[in-house]
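Priority: low. Protein: Arylsulfatase. Input follows.
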Amino acid sequence: MLPRHLLHRIARLALPAAACLLMQSLVPTILKAESANRPNIVYIMADDLGWSDVGYNGAEFYETPNIDALCASGMEFTSAYPGAANCMPSRACIMSGMYVSRTQMWTPGMRAKGDSSKMKFLVPRNKDKKGDGVFPSKGALPPSVISIAEVLHDAGYKTAHFGKWHLGPDGQGFDVNDTNGLGAGLGQKFYGNIDVAENLTDAACEFIDQNRSNPFFIYLCHWDVHSPIRARKEVVAKYKKKLESRDWDRKWNPTYAAMIEAVDTSVGRVREKLQQQGLTENTVFMFTSDNGGASGVTWCEPLKGAKGAFYEGGIRVPACVSWPGVVKPGSTCDTPNTGVDLMPTFAKLAGAILPTTQSVDGRSWVPLLSGRSLPERNIFWHYPLYLSGAGYNQVIPVFGTEQMHWRATPCSVIRRGDWKLIQFFEDDSVQLYNLRSDLGEQNDLSKSEPEKAAQMLEELRQWQKDTQAVIPTKLNPDFGKSSGGQRSAPNKKRS
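Result:
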């Protein structure tokens, strides 16, 4: 059958039926002729693995020799970001090539989390609470969305998704969808399953064996290291012994370390399988995480905040790419990239046609792989809900008070070059950081660099308009009624 992208183009051009039939007959021949020179694409993503949790970013207690070796064999992206601060929306960005302001997939469960009396605005919350329905909050990608799998499939690739999905009941065009490595369906969950990482890796390796003569795309999304924190006893015992072997700077979690090892082992096994099949030279291999590390399980220092926050601890992730003969071993790239970039990047690698029936917000970073540069551009995040924090992830106060409570409140974020600006909707205040000199976001420069802040805010507002980003404005009548402490002046600016 004719690829969906070409069908859309034919419909718009209103080509005669005979021309349509001719194109349909030629497409398989064209794809077969071109596929020999297209690299395989392997994309492995951990769940909730923090930027600081890998050896090449300084981890000492956690052991990631295979991830470190992958990074050493290729390029480290020092400023890699998902499209969101938690799992569901970041995966939607990857699969659709669209920012969350377009998908309207804000958070798992589709509703704000936290004490509603501390929320200044009405936002989607529990079904029995006021605020539901004030603006859309979606939990699935509709089948009408053209996915990265369909883009690559139409270019002649065999496509497989293994592991966590979190995008609804539609498989979005993958040839294989398997959430546990044993054939489980998309709706099933395997958090805390101590065998699932190995089973998923087995399935991915088998897929490589079966498709070694065809270009393929593997989207391997591990359930680890998401809670509950569980791992194989013998591996946990190894890290308990390590914890007891010396005085560490903090009490690291041996079970979490064992979960990281399960993911790391998977990376090593997939690389080994590619080597066995003689496919290493013709495979682009990328590893990353879906968002920052979880507070209370690991530490994200020197970054501020953690999973769910829009400070760097919530959105900066480890990421590296290997492609022998193209990517220089041991190279680094400081150019910021984000989850919506993956569709145009993989399409470029595959010689595929991007969708024309939906926006593609990202930009291909293929030129970066060979050491070339790209023009500077803005990247964005948007979150119109509330998300309560815990521990060091309580980074935002309740509006009008000094009480730290939230890890995220309604906000938008823009990064351009070294600069990052966060706009908080509750009081329309901003924070401005230079990430090159202040990676931990300790020094708000919005007052000392007013022109830079104003320029970035203007560009952020234009992006909100262009993408029809939802911004909450309706006040919550229950705000402050049962919150602890007294609220000060409602127009107090956040420092």
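The chain has 13 helices and 15 strands. The chain has three domains: 1-35, 40-105+140-376, 381-466.
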